[in-house]
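I am still getting used to backbone structure tokens and would like to learn alongside you. To get us started, please write out a protein record for me. Start from the sequence, derive the backbone structure tokens from it, and show both lines together. Once you have written the record down, we can walk along the chain together:
***
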Amino acid sequence: MTTPALSDAAALLAFDREHLWHPYTSMLDPAPTRLVTGASGSRIEIDGTGEVVDGMASWWSAIHGYRHPALDRALREQAERFSHVMFGGLTHAPAVELARRLVEITPDGLDRVFLADSGSVSVEVAMKMALQHQRGRKRPRRTRFLTVRGGYHGDTFDCMSVCDPDGGMHSMWSSLLPGQVFGERPPALGEDVTAWAEGFRALAAEHADRLAGLVVEPLLQGAGGMRPYPAECLRVFREVADEHGLVLIFDEIATGFGRTGTFFAAEAGGVSPDVLCLGKALTGGYLTLAATLCTGEVARGISGSDSGVLMHGPTFMGNPLACAVASASLDLLATGEWERDVRRINTGLQALHDVDAAEVRVLGAVGVVRLDHPVDVAKATEAALAEGAWLRPFRDLIYTMPPYVCSDADVATLCAGIAAAAEAG
């Protein structure tokens, strides 16, 4: 059966409602969707609403905004050469150049690069790296991971196993997932870390002989609760990993490329992980691409495992279009303007402290308002749109992680939208 092409907004939305799944949405009783007809800079255009400031940066990825001339040009020029070739047995300049750039800018020692096709896959690869490394070091019984409660690392199976086991989005799968070891959430910003650190060290020591790695989101827990924590905890993670021979994995898919105020969140603690996961903003939000970087030591362990090779290889690994755009995004970041922009956004987000809420958190270009009850997402969204802001609340949180190109007026609009959403929701 051939379905006729759809043109008007009502027809597109009707077909969408009947046939398209959206993230975490019922197919039988789907949440409302809005039709985007254009985007430029910090704004998206929604049919029937008009232009609004995108407080989500397309789930934290579009840090340079939309239709950036440099990123458009990189995409167009690479498409005129070739859009994709398999990465098995072949290579190309965009992938090599991107890998060179990533080795240059990431924390010390991370000089092996695996180009994946999404953030979840990046974390899956990182976990495989840790497991194969331990096998190569003749410790095959080390098959579990240490992490902390409140985390989120993606929706694929191994990733789900290291997400928060109780308050996260994957509790329904708990009986099917590997049993990982969960420490308590790190303390909130400004709180003393001593008692938490003692408990975490004791937990690691108790389970060390079966642990392959330690995986955390450094400095800011994202979709698990939008919760920042002290940089001292990163040093505890590094010390624990060193003491017990664990592969330390930092999932910087949300925090990388300046979001928390340093280029990588790891820098705030002055530590380097053994494996680093990057995604989201890697291409400035243009195309799906992720990277998993590891040290030479981890790579040697993998080479000593049963297979001798890293057992993963996506079809679109090293996609030339995505790699070319990612390098262009790194060019924009290399100007250093992101630092000024993140500081400026941070200053504007301080207005959120005036919102009547249970808690307000501001870190880098992240602003979070926590209510004392679950958000009425529909009402909160409508209230924010009335103020000219696109937000996507969840659980008891209304937050923004906007494009860095937002003007001061844009940030003020987002704060007004969050305030209205908090009142309505």
